[in-house]
């Protein structure tokens, strides 16, 4: 299964939006990059479904444009005027060539889902590989209204419980992708992010 970050060349702030080629052409998040539809058309003529990790603006800014261009079915946890399928925790959805479990992982966002397959994890913003705060294992910010560090920590534990040992790639909402090596696994990255989140220290200290 090929996975392409279709917002990789964005010049504005956006999430990573991932196109999954395969039996079920799919997109995880839409991002905010103008022209994402043109990039998608470089890889596919059709898009069967679009799934949302959550509905923060940087993940849905170009949602209408993608829906208008490809008419995929929209899957999301929270309500949306154009949602076709309401995803509940532990629901399964076919993306690309794998079946993914929707794991409810709030804390950064109340509607946050992560998608766990047999070889890949689409983690949204609950856990990322690197960002401005930490390298090799970080977590979504929790200092804005409606966010909760305590709930995010619980979500990371839940994610680890749902994670098969066969998962070797993590595709986060921001920063770099991670692919396991002999020295480090996806579980190691999440464990490191969890340890940092549990300290309850500000992710971005002032100054």
TrEMBL record:
Hydrolase found in the keyword field: yes
Cofactors required: Zn(2+)
Gene Ontology MF term list: hydrolase activity; metal ion binding
Gene3D superfamilies in UniProt: Ribonuclease Z/Hydroxyacylglutathione hydrolase-like
InterPro entries in the cross-refs: MBL_Glyoxalase_II, Metallo-B-lactamas, RibonucZ/Hydroxyglut_hydro
Record domain Metallo-beta-lactamase: where: 14-174
Pfam families, A to Z: Lactamase_B
Keyword terms: Hydrolase, Metal-binding, Zinc
SMART domains reported for this sequence: Lactamase_B (SM00849)
Presence of the UniProt keyword Ubl conjugation in the record: no
Entry-linked PANTHER family: HYDROXYACYLGLUTATHIONE HYDROLASE GLOC
Protein name per the record: MBL fold metallo-hydrolase
Lineage: Archaea, Methanobacteriati, Methanobacteriota, Stenosarchaea group, Halobacteria
């Amino acid at each position: 299964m090929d996975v392409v970050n279709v917002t990789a060349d964005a010049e504005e702030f956006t999430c990573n939006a991932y196109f999954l080629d395969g039996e079920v052409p799919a997109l995880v998040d839409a991002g905010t990059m103008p022209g994402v539809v043109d990039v998608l058309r470089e890889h596919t003529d059709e898009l069967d479904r679009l799934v949302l990790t959550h509905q923060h603006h940087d993940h849905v800014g170009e949602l209408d444009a993608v829906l208008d261009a490809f008419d995929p079915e929209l899957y999301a946890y929270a309500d949306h005027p154009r949602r076709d399928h309401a995803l509940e925790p532990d629901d399964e959805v076919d993306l690309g060539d794998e079946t993914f479990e929707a794991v409810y992982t709030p804390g950064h966002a109340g509607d946050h889902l992560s998608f766990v397959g047999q070889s890949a994890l689409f983690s949204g913003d609950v856990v990322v590989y690197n960002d401005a705060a930490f390298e090799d294992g970080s977590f979504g910010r929790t200092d804005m209204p409606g966010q909760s560090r305590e709930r995010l920590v619980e979500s990371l534990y839940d994610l680890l419980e749902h994670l098969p040992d066969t998962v070797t790639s993590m595709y986060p909402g921001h920063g770099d992708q991670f692919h396991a090596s002999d020295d480090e696994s996806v579980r190691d990255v999440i464990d490191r992010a969890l340890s940092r989140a549990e300290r309850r220290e500000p992710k971005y200290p002032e100054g």
